[in-house]
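Hi, here's the filled form for the chain we discussed.

Project: internal
Contact: R.S.
Residues: 425
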Amino acid sequence: MTTPAPGIPVPGTPSRVLVLNSGSSSVKYQLLDMSDGSRLAQGLVERIGEDTSRLAHTPLQGGGGARRERTGPIPDHAAALKAVAEELAADGLGLDSPELAAIGHRVVHGGLRFTEPTVIDDEVLAEIERLVPVAPLHNPANLLGIRTATALRPDLPQVAVFDTAFHTTMPEAAARYAIDVETADAHRIRRYGFHGTSHAYVSRATAKLLGKEPEEVNVIVLHLGNGASASAVRGGRCVDTSMGLTPLEGLVMGTRSGDIDPAVTFHLKRVAGMSADEIDVLLNKRSGLVGLCGDNDMREIRRRIDEGDERAALAFDIYVHRLKKYIGAYYAVLGRVDAVAFTAGVGENAAPVREAAIAGLEELGLAVDAGLNALRSDEPRVISPEYARVTVAVVPTDEELEIARQTFELTAGTAAGNTSEKVNA
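And the returned structure, exactly as it came back:
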């Protein structure tokens, strides 16, 4: 009898994974077949709890089909997942399919306990709930999705893949804030980092682009979306990241301030009479690019710059200045850098951001080729000239595939790696 290679599903065994990303009023989902990493369907339920709820579903197997939409009240997450199950069933991909191996859930905060993907049981649920105070916007929604999916398929393994897990390898010198240790420990105050599934996927895919193993390379990953974060990855392990106790710290983002003097909060309370909740809203929802110029869409900001808009130009310069500082800082942390990888919506699509962030760093071995940078592609690609000592790359992220991969490997008991080029990325 032939023994299958590690990571390859045994013929005839379930190989599909449903990935769920549950927000407070939304559910994103993808169904993947881990025998080859292909996507079978994807969709989004939004405005859950409102009369104007909307479900958009796209079948992808066999060349795909037309997107289907339904609108109308979807009162809660249970109704949302029931609607998702109906759409999948219409494509012959129902949740009752014997080919469904597991359901993988994105969970934003896993604290220090969860350093790997974890099969969910009552104890795991209780710990995720205990972490709600440090992730009040995300963990409650993640829990809703887990409980709803478990009720629909109690026989299936449900796996939590934590945004924070990849960053738990940070040394204490990077993870600790310089505040009273007893107070910090009592209230779980430390730097956790986020976007971990993206940083894990992109750092590994960047190593592959270089023709090396993750253990052989040092990479600075720049995940630039509406939320943005940087990480320093040494030999496949995160040693520093820009987000902290919450996703507010670090880079300038779409609506978040990123790094700011903590005393600003005291000043706003004393001088402006703002409450803690008002300051929270200011820094998380009315700051960043939108606070600086009124827009958080980089395409619109670039259009305004081209028309001579000074506020948009200043917002762009502040965004790039912070980004450049983190590249330099993480270069110092790593000592040797093999690649800088741009990813996520802005990182993958905004050539002017990539060009400006690298400009002036030639002495560090970094440069961008204007022609390569201008090309658009959905594939990982190098945008630095051949003479550059450090590779600059654009590496599209795939958090859903990363969640599915980790979920499948855990529940199938397989070793790292999978059959397809994409899954190995």
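Let me know if anything looks off before we file it.
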